[in-house]
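Response to reviewer comment R2.3. The reviewers asked that we include at least one raw input/output pair. We reproduce the pair for 3-dehydroquinate dehydratase here without editing.
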Amino acid sequence: MRLLIVNGPNLNLLGTRETDIYGSKTFEDYFVELQFKFSEVELAQFQSNTEGEIIDQLHQAHDGKFDGVILNAGGYTHTSVAIADAVAGIDLPVVEVHISNVMDREEFRHTSYISKYCVGTISGFGLESYLLGIQSFLNDSKDKD
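Raw output as returned:
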């Protein structure tokens, strides 16, 4: 199985940004842990602060390189019709993840333009939200066997 993790704006600051919300571990360090834990899965990651680059990455994932996408669109979750359209337009399952519990935060974060087009949403489990996203793909693959 091949999965792509796409991280949106400001997630490059994990480890130093609002550590009371996002923790003190960088995503790069956590990604190494994920690769070790899920050695049977080919994991790739991409991060951008730019909406168009995220859309381009989603389009490229659609070309058969990946079996699914784990998407943390960051603040674009609540603002980007274009990223929602990209998720809707690709023929890949996408799991939306958030590190924080978005429903326990500012009201504008309660709306996701992306959720409607995803197979599921995982929110509020810290960086473990990514692990749960990967596990959801593995569980789904076992169900199909």
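The chain has one domain: 2-144. Residues 2 and 42 are 5 Å apart (CA to CA). Further pairs are available on request from the corresponding author.
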